[in-house]
Design a protein that fits this description.
It contains three helices and twelve strands, in the order αββββββαββββββα. By secondary structure, the protein is mainly beta. The protein has a single domain, classed as outer membrane lipoprotein receptor (LolB), chain A, CATH 2.50.20. A twelve-stranded mixed β-sheet has the order 7-8-9-10-11-1-2-3-4-5-6-12, with no helix packed on it. The two termini are 25 Å apart. The relative contact order is 0.23.
């Protein structure tokens, strides 16, 4: 799921300062496209369980919610928050991204447990935009299926990646990314709960991103 989220959520990977592709609008595509699964509803979201193919690694928990709206230079934006369990301390770490419905990112704010929130600049290059376009084009809708996961039974669109390394099932009953189930080469993910009444987990003042301070935060015991 890490790779799929890197593509669809893009800046969420900045939670750990990973180098991933940057977001770009879905207007590039005339055919059904996997980027169209972004369906933000403020106060709603989804919880997932991720499992690596490496059985030595325990399952981890992931949450995606929409916690607010704000105007951007590109129109109305949604604050999408992603929470992921820290494998070291077991606490949830959060990032939120201000993203428009056509999937353009404006701001990224992240916060580690017990640490101040930081805002990172986000200005995707043309190279990253083109990479996003190319990555999206590798996904094809191959049909519809009804599947059952811990959160219930859903009628889903079934998507596969051209190289056969990943597939995902999506439903418009799930927000913000519509994902119900994902199976990849190295990991899998299933929807465990629909979240309602979602609120912002990032608290306190937000400071500009400081790489030195970030590294010091990462070295502190949780």
């Amino acid at each position: 799921m890490k790779r799929l989220l890197g593509v669809l959520v893009a800046a969420a990977a900045c939670l750990w300062l990973s180098a991933v592709v940057a977001g770009q609008g879905i207007s590039f595509f005339s055919k059904p496209n996997i980027a169209d699964i972004f369906k933000p509803v403020v106060g709603s979201g989804a919880a997932y369980e991720q499992q690596s193919t490496d059985q030595k690694r325990p399952a981890s928990q992931l949450e995606m919610t929409v916690v607010g709206k704000e105007m951007t230079p590109n129109g109305e934006g949604y604050w999408m928050e992603v929470g992921h369990m820290d494998p070291k301390g077991g606490a949830m770490m959060y990032t939120k991204m201000l993203v428009t419905k056509d999937f353009q990112f404006t701001k990224i704010v992240f916060q580690q447990p017990g640490q101040p929130a930081m805002e990172m600049p986000f200005d995707p290059t043309e190279k990253n935009r083109n990479r996003m376009k190319d990555e999206m084009a590798k996904w094809q809708q191959v049909g519809t299926e009804t599947i059952t996961v811990p959160a219930g039974t859903f009628s889903c669109a079934h998507w596969k990646k051209d190289d056969g390394t990943d597939e995902v099932w999506t439903s418009d009953k799930v927000t913000p990314m519509a994902m119900v189930k994902q199976v990849g080469k190295n990991n899998s993910m299933v929807l465990t709960k629909i979240i309602t009444g979602a609120t912002d987990h990032i608290t306190g003042p937000v400071t500009p991103f400081d790489p030195k301070a970030f590294m010091q935060q990462r070295q502190k015991p949780q």
